[in-house]
Structures are given as C-alpha cells and as structure tokens.
Design brief:
With 268 residues, the protein is α/β, with parallel strands linked by helices. Helices cover 40% and strands 17% of the residues.
Length: 268
C-alpha cells in the first residue's frame, strides 16, 4: 500500500490541551502515528513533547502531575503577569533536556505572532523549549518571548489551529483538534487573568470559525464545562478521556480518509 504522511494540527486552549493526549492515544492505538505535528499554544507544548519521542504513557503520567500553582512565578516585567520561567521549567522536567527541532524524530512546528509587526511566525528550527515558550505566551498573561530579534506572543492571536502549516509541511492527510468549538465563559470575569483569557478565547473561537479549513477532518471536542486555566490530576484525567473518546468516535471517518488518499496516491 502506498505510504502517506499523516499530519496533525493541535489547537490552543490552555488547560484544555490535556485532551490532545487522549487524541494521540486513540490514534496510536489504531496505528496512526503522525509524522508531522504543528501546534499553537498548549498544542505546541503537547505536540513538542510528542515529537521528542516520549511514550504516550509517560506523557500522560507527567500531565497528571501538572498543577496550576507550578505555572505561577514572581515577575516584575510589566508586559506580562507571569514571566514564563516556571512554565518552561515544567516542560523541561518532562523532556529532561532541550532539543533542536531539526533533530526531532517527528517533523514539528510551533506557531507564534510577532507583536511588533503583526506577522505570524512558524518556529520549525532551533530550540524546542524556546519555540514552546513563544507559542504559549498569551498576551498580558505571559511576558512576550524574544526570539531572533522578534518579540513573540501566543500564535492563537492569528492562527489557533495551524492546519495550513501542517499541509504546507508536506502532510498528505491533515487532521486537527479544536479545543474551543463550544467555548463559553464559565463565569463573570473576577480577575485580570479572567478578563484577558476569556477575551482571548472568544477571539480564537471566532477566528477558527471564519478561517479556511485545510484539514481533511477537524475533531471538535466538547469541553465547555472545563476551565482553561485550571490544571489538576482529576481534570486532566477527564480531559484525556474526552479526547480519546471523541477521537475513537471519529476513527471510521479518519480511516476512510486515509484509505482514500492512499488509493489516490497509489494510482498516480
């Protein structure tokens, strides 16, 4: 059978991104292992850890240990509430060392935005930790990340589900995961972080709805009952299960798409 490249676009959505692990588990169980992954924000984090070659069982084990308090740090920079150092430390504790993106066993990219020029930036070379740090930098929450003279913030400002980049990087089949398909604020804003986060997620949801789809299949996860900035073992377990369950539901469609593309490519 003709071999094709499977690509996966992992969307942003804060703590909801734990569901991406469930999606990857379901795909893996059915022998579908993406050769290309591009992520935005939390999608860049989960995708980056996967691209390192870390077994999914280890990814899940580490994910269940992440607590909200681990991401907070003392910060005197007025450009963001959090410095991002603690978040970067959490990622490094999982992958143990930094990697050059070019050396990863899975082709990888992280999406960020240059806040000075308004340009979308695909980070597909250099430090993996730096790429993740840039892509998760929600404006106003994290201090922007300096990369090669650019001041970068969360890629969700322009492209929360980077399906187009997955396609451009050579994927024959593009699958994507939308964490915000049914997002609604769960309460009235009570803090500055609430106000920034809710506004940001509403913007992302609308952008995704109007953006041209490059995906052969977009998996929309029902996550409206979860909070985007609360990390805990119980919530992560629930999110991983939802990601797994919803992907299993879509598996017949996914396999049908893959088979169709394989056949079309084999006939050329």
């Amino acid at each position: 059978m003709c071999k094709i490249k499977i690509g996966l676009a992992l969307g942003g959505g804060g703590a909801l991104g734990m569901a991406h692990i469930g999606v990857l588990k379901a795909l893996n169980e059915h022998g579908i292992n993406p050769q290309i992954i591009v992520g935005t924000s939390i999608g860049s984090l989960v995708g980056g850890v996967y691209a390192c070659g870390l077994p999914l069982s280890c990814m899940e084990k580490h994910a269940l240990k992440v607590k909200t308090a681990q991401l907070f740090d003392v910060n005197l920079n007025p450009s963001g509430i959090l410095s991002g150092a603690s978040a970067t430390k959490v990622v490094k504790n999982i992958i143990k060392t930094d990697f050059n993106i070019e050396d990863l066993p899975v082709k990888y990219g992280a999406v960020a935005v240059d806040i000075n020029t308004g340009e979308e930036v695909l980070l597909d070379s250099g430090s993996l930790l730096t790429a993740i740090r840039a892509s998760i930098s929600v404006p106003g929450v994290f201090v922007p990340c300096q990369v090669n003279g650019r001041t970068l913030v969360d890629g969700g400002v322009l492209n929360n589900i980077p399906e187009d980049h997955v396609k451009a990087m050579g994927a024959d089949v593009v699958l994507s995961v939308n964490l915000l398909s049914d997002f609604t604020p769960y309460t009235k804003p009570k803090t500055a972080i609430h106000s920034v986060a809710f506004s940001f997620f509403i913007m992302q949801k609308k952008l995704v709805e109007t953006k041209k789809k490059y995906a052969d299949l977009r998996i929309n996860l029902p996550l409206k009952d979860f909070r985007q900035y609360i990390f805990s073992q119980e919530l992560s377990e629930d999110l991983i299960e939802i990601g797994y369950r919803e992907t299993i539901k879509q598996m017949p469609k996914i396999k049908k798409i893959i088979a169709k593309v394989q056949q079309a490519k084999g006939n050329k």
